[in-house]
């Protein structure tokens, strides 16, 4: 999808949205495999290194979702505040930023593997960072939630202050066009904050179960199952909301699934219809022969 967007559209905003959807899709796939392992034979715990690596993949993909919204907010910041510097909104720059974002998340989350924070959960058949590990969970919440939220909140405040302090432009037409564009970008940033807020609100059960595990000393037996269901519902909502609030992506998906089924396929013309014009011309010729006489 990203390659196709780069080849056909060259739209930075669309590739950033595709990045968020791609991370959400990978998160759902890893969650599906972890849930399958928990429900059936527990195939993930046959090899502990593979089990810990799969838990790492889950955290990486989920973390990328949050940081992808940071990139979207940064893109809107460049369009509003630094609108004179066109290279900041170029496709190539944000394509590079997406790669850097994935590398940054890897740099954040790979060290816990070497510290042995990932372990087989006592109430599940897969590996994650246990809620009873206080230092590991604080680090996890800081990297996964707080840093992206602070970045997006700072960008939103920056854009709001800039729009209120904007000086008078040279002409009225430029002022109207720029104001309309800024309002659209500010609306997009508000939607991003709303989506991040939904993710954080739906993560409150995780924090509650973590506090419960720290106080009691063990996790509730259905903790990870409840958290998995809430996370799945959250990702489904985020996916549909992202597609709905992105008109180019919504149009492309609509054209792919709807117009593809409504294409008119050419059917072969029956032989009887082919001979009809020939007989008509023959009749015309026979009708014209008496006139020649």
UniProtKB/TrEMBL annotation:
Transmembrane stretches, start-end: 12-34, 54-75, 95-118, 138-159, 192-216, 222-244
Main localization (coarse): membrane
Keyword presence, Disulfide bond: no
Domain G-protein coupled receptors family 1 profile: 1-250
This protein's record includes keyword Secreted: no
Any single Gene Ontology cellular-component annotation: membrane
Keyword list, A-Z: Membrane, Transmembrane, Transmembrane helix
Gene3D superfamilies the UniProt entry points to: Rhodopsin 7-helix transmembrane proteins
PROSITE patterns per UniProt: G_PROTEIN_RECEP_F1_2 (PS50262)
Compartment(s): Membrane
Domain of life: Eukaryota
InterPro entries named among the record's database cross-references: GPCR_Rhodpsn_7TM
Protein name: G-protein coupled receptors family 1 profile domain-containing protein
Classification lineage: Eukaryota, Metazoa, Spiralia, Gnathifera, Rotifera
